[in-house]
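In the design runs reported in the main text, the only information available to the sequence generator was the tokenized backbone. The following block is the verbatim input for one such run; it is reproduced so that readers can re-run the procedure and compare outputs position by position.
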């Protein structure tokens, strides 16, 4: 019998962030992992959410580039449907949501504190 592979979830703001979980299997060419949760249930998660992600030093992937491009069209479409009086408030709310989701800035690869 072989020891189970373990992965640590590295997805900011995820309830599983920081937890080490056993892997039961992989699917979709290794991009998805079947893991056992602390309560014994099983869940499929993207490998990119774990320390198994390519280049494991980087940030976890929250969305595909196609998903992000689709989201870019959403705010203007929503704002266009609002009465003129509500546009300013909508822009403030969207800006606050974007700032909240962005989290802390990520330094450029190869740059450390004080590097220029």
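Verbatim output:
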């Amino acid at each position: 019998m072989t020891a189970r592979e373990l992965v640590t979830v590295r997805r900011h703001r995820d309830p599983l962030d920081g937890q080490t979980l056993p892997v039961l299997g992989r699917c979709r060419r290794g991009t998805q992992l079947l893991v056992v949760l602390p309560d014994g249930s099983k869940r499929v998660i993207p490998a990119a959410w774990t320390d198994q992600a390519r280049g494991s030093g980087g940030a976890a992937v929250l969305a595909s580039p196609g998903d992000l491009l689709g989201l870019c069209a959403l705010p203007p479409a929503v704002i266009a449907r609002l009465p003129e009086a509500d546009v300013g408030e909508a822009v403030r709310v969207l800006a606050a949501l974007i700032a909240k989701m962005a989290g802390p800035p990520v330094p450029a690869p190869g740059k450390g504190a004080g590097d220029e």
